[in-house]
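Final report, Chapter 2: Outcomes

The project's central promise was a pipeline that accepts a single protein chain and returns its three-dimensional structure in a standardized token representation, suitable for archiving and comparison. That pipeline is now operational. To close this chapter, we reproduce one record exactly as it appears in the project archive, with the input sequence first and the structure output second.
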Amino acid sequence: MGLAGRIAVVTGTAHGIGTAIAKALTEDGATVHGVDRDTADLTSAYLCTRAVIPGMKARGWGRIVNISSAAGLTVSRTGIQAYASAKAGQIGLTRQLAAELGPFGITVNCIAPGFILSNPTTQIQWDGYGPEGQAQMVAGISMRRLGQPEDIANGVQFFAAERAGWITGQTIAIDGGHAFL
């Protein structure tokens, strides 16, 4: 119960990764408020982050964990330039906010997930690869399996923990070793 008494705002909780993160943080003792695109404008991570900063500064403590993408570290598998650019920008935003917010006891980190079959869009993408493309994708992952939403939630739990208080401005690829092949 390392997050007992803490409040977490988790975006994208309608399914997949957001749902897994909310569940994991709740299990760690946090009071979780789930937000999805039906209830708030989630098209800009910058706006969501800016909304929570004043309260974190007032408390002298906070953890911001952005979810980017492997496409932000490398290239988009689907060739969507805007997506890859936005995710790379999110990594830059993470580093900048870490520098600005550190003096207030706030850490800012980022997770760049590999392919996670977690929502209708990724299901369509996966189906579009067909059996050969799917096998090729899995063969390109060191762990030889697709990631699960819980794999990403584990990373968020790590960054959100009290003991991660001196880790900030970092991006960790949670991709089963895909980046190494």
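Archive annotation: Residues 7-173 form a domain with the Rossmann fold fold (CATH 3.40.50.720).
This record, like all others produced under the grant, will remain available to the consortium after the project formally closes.
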